[in-house]
């Protein structure tokens, strides 16, 4: 993979970036995503943010190699601190991190998010906590994709800023409102695996001398939700 040929996962994230956007890619690594968008004239400006010096230097080299210095800038910064007011960023992409970390990054940067109209997020675990944050901060999910690549399953969430309240049911928060409606084969396979994992965890908790009541109740509730969705999908 490089800036000219993205992985399916990153290409899916990039597809939700609107033409002419001013994008900040947080945790950009080699800056492959913003560089690809710049090469394809999909964005007018981009920031590649990295908190680790090695990846930040990789991003700098990639931008220079491709001659994109007029459109892209790499910044060594923690999370949304990579965004400066003069950037006028309207779109933020965060891909390849856990949901709790993505949520933490978003929570730490309210000032940098002030002008942002679209978030494109690809949490590799903990998607529900990301959806919970989006609803609480008036970002409405407008599209979702689920895909399998190289033995992993990825969910991409696209959300736009709205002025009205946003709420999701427990099932929508866990599965994703669009993915839940679609119930694709990749979605079904993911939740069949997750059902087995949670059932195994419950069996272990039940064997403990002192059962962790709260965790057990949460896991049991999750099993019921998953079983309900898989039963519906089988009809």
From TrEMBL:
Gene3D superfamilies documented for this protein: 1.10.287.1890, Vaccinia Virus protein VP39 (3.40.50.150)
GO MF, one annotated term: tRNA (adenine(22)-N1)-methyltransferase activity
SUPFAM superfamilies reported in the protein's UniProt record: S-adenosyl-L-methionine-dependent methyltransferases (SSF53335)
Protein's name in the database: SAM-dependent methyltransferase
Species name: Lactiplantibacillus pentosus DSM 20314
């Amino acid at each position: 993979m490089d800036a000219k040929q993205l992985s399916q996962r990153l290409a899916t994230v990039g597809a939700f970036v609107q033409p002419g956007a001013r994008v900040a890619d947080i945790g950009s690594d080699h800056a492959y995503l913003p560089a690809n968008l710049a090469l394809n004239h999909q964005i007018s400006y981009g920031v590649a943010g990295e908190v680790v010096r090695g990846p930040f230097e990789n991003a700098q080299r990639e931008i220079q190699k491709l001659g994109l210095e007029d459109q892209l800038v790499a910044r060594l910064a923690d999370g949304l601190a990579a965004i400066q007011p003069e950037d006028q960023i309207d779109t933020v992409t965060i891909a390849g991190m856990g949901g709790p970390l993505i949520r933490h990054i978003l929570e730490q940067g309210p000032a940098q998010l002030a002008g942002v109209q679209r978030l494109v997020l690809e949490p590799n675990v903990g998607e529900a906590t990301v959806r919970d944050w989006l609803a609480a901060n008036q970002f409405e999910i407008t599209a979702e994709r689920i895909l399998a690549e190289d033995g992993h399953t990825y969910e991409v969430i696209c959300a736009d800023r709205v002025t009205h309240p946003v709420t999701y049911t427990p099932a929508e928060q866990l599965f994703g409102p669009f993915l839940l409606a679609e119930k694709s084969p990749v979605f079904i396979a993911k939740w069949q695996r997750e059902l087995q994992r949670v059932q195994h965890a419950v069996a272990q908790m039940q064997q403990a001398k002192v059962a962790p009541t709260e965790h057990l109740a949460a896991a049991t509730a999750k099993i019921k939700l998953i079983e309900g969705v898989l039963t519906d999908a089988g009809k």
